[in-house]
Every structure is written in C-alpha cells, then in structure tokens.
Amino acid sequence: MSGVTSPGSDPARPAAARIYDYLLGGKDNYAVDRAAADRVLAVAPDQRRLARANRAFAIRAVRVLAAAGLRQFIDLGTGFPTSPSVHEAARQSDPSASAVYVDYDPVVHVHNAALLARDDQVVSVQADIRQPGVILGHPDVARLIDFSQPVGVLCVAVLHLVPDAEDPGGIVAQFRDRMCAGSCLVLSQFASDSDPEAMAELRAVAAGTAVETYFRPRSQIRRFFDGFELLEPGLTDVQEWRQDSVTAPTRLKIAGAVGRKP
Question: Which distant-in-sequence residues (6+ apart) come within 8 Å of 60 by Cβ?
Fold first, then answer.
C-alpha cells in the first residue's frame, strides 16, 4: 500500500504511505493511520508479516535484476524511505546504479528528497502514477533514465489503489511502451483469492477514503504483464517468489511477479 492517491498531509485522514509505514514498523504515521491498520490487523493479524513480505519481494527482485545487469530503476509509489532501498539493493551489484523514486504524497516526497539530497544518481519525484506521461516527461526522469538502455520499473503494492475505471493496465502499458528490450517490470497487488472476512474488513476500512483498495483476480494481475515474459517462478504470492525458506500463508494475499520485455 504505497502512497499514490492521497496528498498525505491531512492527519485526520488515513494515507496509504503512512499505513504501510506503520505496518513495516516505522514512525511516519498518525493515529488515524494506526487505527485503520489495527482494524485490519484484528481480523488479519498476519498483515504486518505480509507487508514485510511484499517489501522483501521488491528488494529480492531488484537484486536479481541488478545482478543480471540492470543499472537504472524507477520505483512508482515508493512510500516512506525504508532500508534497504531500491538503489541500495541495486548498488550491491554496481555502485553507480541510479534510481527515481516517485510518489504523489508530498510528505513522502519531502522525506525522500531530504534523504537523497547528496546523491546525484538518485532523485525523488512528486507525481501521480495515474499520469504516466507526466512521470515519463519529468526532467529528473529524463536526466537519470536512459530508455534506450534496460530499466527496471517497480509497481509494487500500488495498483490496488487504482480502480478499473482509471485503467491500471493502460498505465502499465504506457511505461512498457517506453521500455526497451531487456527492461523489466516488478509488480505486486492484492489478490481476490484472499480470505473473504479479511478482505471485507480491509475494504470497509478503506471505503470512501484515499486508500480505497481493489482486489483483483490473478488472471487480471497476470494481464498487467502483457508484453513481458515472466521470470521463474511466474506469478506467486510475494513471500514465495524466489524464496528458499517456507513461510506460512497469510489471510490476505498479495500476488507478485517480475516480467522481462523481449
């Protein structure tokens, strides 16, 4: 639940980035965010573990892609800074790796910009994932990202904040169309085969707010990867993607995969 649809500066309304930060054990959250998360935790107490598994999936994917030679990344709906970050994970393979962190939440943007101020190969951009053209045309993106070379685009736990009416598949396609062969998409989102009670509670908590959540069947999530070839093991629960150890299932499900553009 990375921040993308909420301005995030109103302490009276829950914000996706702050809820995610709370679930990850961070301190950049308000009472309203904790209250919303605690309602879900009451029926799905493993939600903290799922949030951490989703974050770990993203970092494992970045490490896999960086080891394969990718050196530039765009993280859409990045949320509050968490270590290891995308560029930290990528730089384990190449210290020159670059990253663009994109989030609509102005508070997230300020936090990231302050943290990254001394690194000219990493930048924070305040923009909305629902406006891919704005992101792709942003001067900081143009400065850091060479789309004639492979790029890794992360869309992790963010599309479930975008309703079907706003065409999440079309959003992904606009990024795909700018990516050259060898580029990769890392994507995860809540799956509709989650536990019905937990899913209903999350929907009830989020209804009518900026964190309204849309669960999707895995067949629809798989279609987000149209134009990409999925890396093994394909679309799985995030805690199972290239994870050696066996982990217990969670009541809520986030499905994730990594696709490579041929």
Answer: 241, 242, 243
The C-alpha atoms of residue 252 and residue 22 are separated, in whole angstroms, by: 17
Angstrom distance (rounded) from CA 54 to CA 44: 15
List of residues 6+ apart from 237 with CB closer than 8 A: 53, 249, 250, 253, 254, 255, 256
Amino acid at 56: A
pTM to 2 decimal places: 0.89
Q: How far apart are CA 31 and CA 214, in angstroms?
A: 24
The residue among 204, 211, 260 whose CA lies nearest residue 104 is 211
Q: What is the 8-class DSSP label of residue 191?
A: B
Peptide bond into 84 cis (omega under 30): yes
> pLDDT (tens digit, 9 = 90+) per residue, 124-173?
999 999 999 999 999 999 999 999 999 999 999 999 999 999 999 999 99
Domains defined for the chain, CATH in brackets: 16-260 (3.40.50.150)
